[in-house]
Amino acid sequence: MKLSKPDFLKSPLEHFRDSLESSYGEKGQVFREKSVKKKMPFVYTLTFPQTASHGMRTYSYGVSFAPHPDQHNRIELFLEMDATDMAWAHIVGYLANNLRGDCPFLQGEIIRIGQQISSDSGLNAFVVVPAIEESAETQVRDGKKASPIHIMQLIPIFEQEVLTIQKMGLERFLTQIRPQLKNPKRKAF
Known about the structure:
Layout: H1 12-24, E1 29-33, E2 43-48, E3 56-61, E4 74-81, H2 87-99, E5 110-112, E6 125-130, E7 139-140, E8 149-157, H3 161-168, H4 170-177
Parallel strand pairs: 4-8
Antiparallel strand pairs: 1-2, 2-3, 3-4, 5-6, 6-8, 7-8
């Protein structure tokens, strides 16, 4: 007989993880990063490996502990890529750790990395949007009484596509790249 921890003893991270794992029906891998900001808790990255039916899915947990004046909801980050390179998972934790409290992660916000994210991909920036992948949870709870956490998706882009997004609009741009949205080897639009 396998015993499980009662809900009232679980940490918010365990509630968050349980919510995602029950939604996906698989176990996620958790990475912990010490906070770069003083007096802030750790940042966690929850990664669900790539399978034949979906890409590697990664969620942050820690952005919601550092509110930004422009944020109206508690948020966390999400990224799904058709890749096995863990650089895609770790960039989510890196961005969450380094930008939380300073970046509101609002729709249309551009995050420039300044170098390629993965050795096999030229993508070097992100645009932030509300979760658009069917596989992404749009809201997750980290406790019974906690307010829901809204999930914001990171869409990898090329830095030179920023001008294209400004010219044609974010919605139209996303429609154009939708078939290649999770492809780390896609060509610039």
